[in-house]
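residues and backbone:
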Amino acid sequence: MKQTDTRRSMLLPDPRYSDQMVTRFINTMMMNGKKETCYNIFYGAMDEIKRKTKEEGVTVWKKAMENAMPQVEVRSRRVGGATLQIPTEIRTQRKISLTMKWLILYARQRKGKSMRMKLAEELIAASKMEGGAYKKKEDTHKMAEANKAFAHFRF
């Protein structure tokens, strides 16, 4: 029987900020292997944030990540013929992954303009506790709160 290796590969830090989380965000945003394009979009968005808010772009990005990061989610579980939504804590890696996916998804869904402008606007909104990604987090927490009665069915 083959044993699976659960260790994660180390990411190289990005060139501008020397941060592995930035590389992970860029990898999440990447489509069709176009990493250089994603670097340009991300760095362009950071410059746009700096121009609009007079704050450092990465600081706003980290604040947006923090604000949009969910703590609990609901998982479906079949109990006695009924499917219940059971609130569960989220692992750290999954929290980060969900946050990145939501920020990118809601940036892509914004109207018009270039991706760098849409990403900058979504990050600014999330850092101010607004925008689609933050709303998604709030909805996830509300769902978990509403189903708190089923918490004792935890996995």
